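Long-time lurker. I teach an intro course on protein structure, and each term I like to show students one example going from raw sequence to a predicted 3D structure in token notation. This year I'd like something fresh instead of my usual example. Would anyone be willing to generate the tokens for the chain below so I can use it in lecture? Attribution to the forum is fine with me.
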Amino acid sequence: MDIARYAEFYRDKLLDDVIPFWVRHSPDRDCGGYFTCLDRTGKVYDTDKFMWPQGRQVWVLSKMYRHVRQEQEYLDLARLGAEFIRDHGFDENGNIYFALERDGKAYANTCIFSDCFCAMGLAEYAAAAGSEADWARDLAMKTYRGVQDWLVNKEDPYSRFIPGVRPTESMAFDMINVNMSLELDSIINDPLFRQCGLASAERILNLHVDRKEGLVFDNVAPDGAHPDTFGGRVILPGHALECLWFLISAGDAWGRSDIVTAAIETIPDMLEFGWDEKYGGFFYYRDAAGKPPEQLEWDRKLWWVHCEALVATLLAYKHTGRAEFAEWFEKVHEYTWDRFADPEHGEWFGYLDRGGEVLLNMKGGKWKGCFHLPRTLHVCWQLLDDLSADGQG
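-- Reply from a regular --
Happy to contribute to a lecture. Here you go:
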């Protein structure tokens, strides 16, 4: 594997393609925050502000300023989003709304994932901006504590399920808690992050990672069993691979080699299970038993799934030096850059059909924003630089 060539490629795509696309098209300089619904050329087609991508973009821009280039524009644009979150994002109980109108008027109820991503964004912005943004650090910490309280009871007043019937543990909450805890732990000195992050990591390994089957189940019974239902059998290859690289990073940061080993050893099975042998790329959903999936979009190919596969394979290769991980990285690299990338207008398309043809001719929307792709480019670039320095390749 030509490590140096890949490192240069990922650096250039980050700095000369993807970040400039969002810097150029997404800021709302009149009302604050960011537009995320951008068509192929970057033109805004919906002005609503969805809070997941608001927090995520603050995180990306602040991370760019702290770790890549101290360009004032990055910090100024991070402030644009952070102050929008501060001024409009919170309800009277300190929870973050799911969606706002352009001017900041909320129209969609709170959502725990909004809290998670905004906490990450505010913490990273506080680290980038310094003492003038102590308010962001305080808000991030308060929001993080609120998420931990929620994880204890998981009360959801909007749930359509009957309480106490068919209890289910969802990996999504612990997965994002591992990542959020890691991010805040790198910025704020508080043992709470390690404590909460490791608790979530251990729940994932004990309940959701099935070592025997080599699969990562999104939904399990409280004892880790897999109900023979749509929800109990569902596998999301993208979630699994993203979660596994979070676990590797957590094990590294918090001195838990057992977590690192368990995560790495699960990656090959998930890669094989998720890959579409006929057309290439990773399925969005799969049924663990090979039964018909509930999700009609099960066979679509999504940008973020492939982003997380790039990071997972490269991180596993860095830890092990095993050729199979390098081969998988190159295989996924070839697929993604051949099909998702838009050489004419920049950035990536987000949604392909099973055969790899573009389904939606846009670059951002309610879910796709400035996050998975720039994060992947940055992490892969850094991993490749580390590999080059270590003489691997």
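Some talking points for your students: The radius of gyration is 20 Å. The longest strand covers residues 106-110.
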